[in-house]
Amino acid sequence: MREAEIKALLVDPVNNAPVILLKDKHSTKAMPIWIGETEAMSIALELQNQYFPRPLSHDLMKGIINHLGGKVEKVAITALKEGTYYATIFLREKKGEIIELDARPSDSLALALRMGSPIYIADEVFDSSAIESPFAEEDAFQDFVEYNMDLSEFKKILK
Amino acid sequence: MREAEIKALLVDPVNNAPVILLKDKHSTKAMPIWIGETEAMSIALELQNQYFPRPLSHDLMKGIINHLGGKVEKVAITALKEGTYYATIFLREKKGEIIELDARPSDSLALALRMGSPIYIADEVFDSSAIESPFAEEDAFQDFVEYNMDLSEFKKILK
Predict the structure, then answer these.
(1) pLDDT tens digits along B80-104
(2) Which of B28, B36, B31 is nearest to B155 (CA)?
């Protein structure tokens, strides 16, 4: 497992789909993950400290966890199967027991950001799909960049 | 407060936006609410007992509540302000205390369906925006009907 951070939200020019760039904290490599538009907006708003006038699904999720005395210990991207990334949310309940919940990466990341939880990627997943990060030098989060990274090349790796 | 049920998912022909039709259980009247596409899909799948290959946000929310020993007592559409509906989720925690969480109607309904919780509408909200239900006679849920209901007339009421 290696710790990661959300480095950028890109737009795949081929289909206008949002892509999240998850960068290894201790190298210059990153891994792109395609996500839905609603989830991308939820992640972008939180990263920019902006708020939607009404609670989004992940804001509600945060409220539920806090009110029920839970805590998100960490989230992890754990597997890549047939082009789909799998994630796990490690939820600590009041008595200290940790429950592992199967989740999509987008929900896991949107929730981790709101709960201040670290993000991890399993080594075998990262090794199989990481690329040199286009924003390795930048400190700040890059939001919705129209970046002409070779995403089509990357898609071939996934298949 | 009156108990309601999700009667149909319509498509507003003007902007292709999904509209949920919330019917009073004890009359032939219903209230349309415009919601996002992601939330509409989440509601439609649950109503049709179909499942997305990966957990959607509301499936994850259900898992979180169950694992933390919570229960959704009910959800309610509580207010209508400047064309926006407000909802409240009544969450019971382990010790029995009930917490009221501010939420969007779409999240509340998607969650209520998954938790088997009743749906209510505040009388003043229902009275101000209910119309005669186009599907009052039908028993089954109507999914994504292209119905030429006069939604533009309804929008005027909201304004």
Answers:
(1) 999 899 999 999 999 999 999 999 9
(2) B31
DSSP label at residue A111: H
What's chain B's average pLDDT?
A: 88
Rounded alpha-carbon distances, angstroms, from residue B114 to A6, A84, B42, B103, B154: 31, 25, 10, 16, 29
B91 contacts in chain A (CB < 8 Å):
64, 67-68
Q: At what angle do helices B57-67 and B37-47 cross, to 10 degrees?
A: 60
Which candidate from B54, B57, B68 shows the least CB-CB separation from A93? B68
Over residues A103-133, the pLDDT tens digits come to 999 999 999 999 999 999 999 999 998 988 8
Domains of chain A: 2-132 (3.10.690.10)
Cα distance between residue A118 and residue B77, in whole Å: 35
Contact between chains at B61 and A65 (C-beta distance less than 8 A): no
**Structural tokens at position B152:** 């533009």
DSSP bridge partners of B21: B8, B32
- Distance between terminal CA atoms of chain B? 23
What is the rounded CA–CA span in Å between residue B61 and residue B49?
17
Helix, coil or strand: residue B9: strand
Identify which of A32, A7, A1, A37 has the alpha carbon closest to the alpha carbon of residue A19. Answer: A32
User: How big is the CA angle at A8 (ends A79 and A66), to the nearest 5 degrees?
Assistant: 70
